[in-house]
Write a structure and sequence with these properties.
By secondary structure, the protein is an all-alpha fold. It is built from five helices and no strands. The radius of gyration is 22 Å and the shape is elongated. This is Transposase.
């Protein structure tokens, strides 16, 4: 039988890891992705770091040390989803603008 021993992390390691993850949370898009990327850098298992991040977010911690006690986890997830959707729509808009300009040039009789 394999025994898994938990590893105790010093409080300063926990604070540093959570701070780094929260500062870059928007860049990674989710606590899981941030934990997978930052965990190995600070020698913390990604699942442990993900739980720390989730707890910090539930307690209202925000990047830059600010707090926002008014948002629940569900609201935070919806906000994150809407921000991603907004980024995707802006990108789609840019692509459509470029395509529109291309076809407008192609259909212009002066272009030939």
């Amino acid at each position: 039988m394999v025994s898994i021993m938990s590893k105790r992390y010093p409080p300063e390691v926990r604070k540093k890891a959570v701070r780094l993850a929260l500062e870059r949370l928007d860049e990674y898009g989710s606590a899981y992705a941030a934990a997978r990327a930052i965990g190995p850098m600070v020698d913390v298992h990604h699942e442990t770091l993900r739980l720390w991040i989730k707890k910090a977010l539930d307690e209202g911690s925000r990047p830059g040390g600010t707090t926002s006690p008014g948002l629940s986890s569900a609201e935070r997830e919806e906000l994150q989803r809407l921000r991603k959707e907004n980024r995707d729509l802006k990108q789609t808009n840019e692509i459509l603008k470029l395509a529109s300009a291309f076809f407008a040039r192609e259909l212009d009789p002066r272009h030939r």
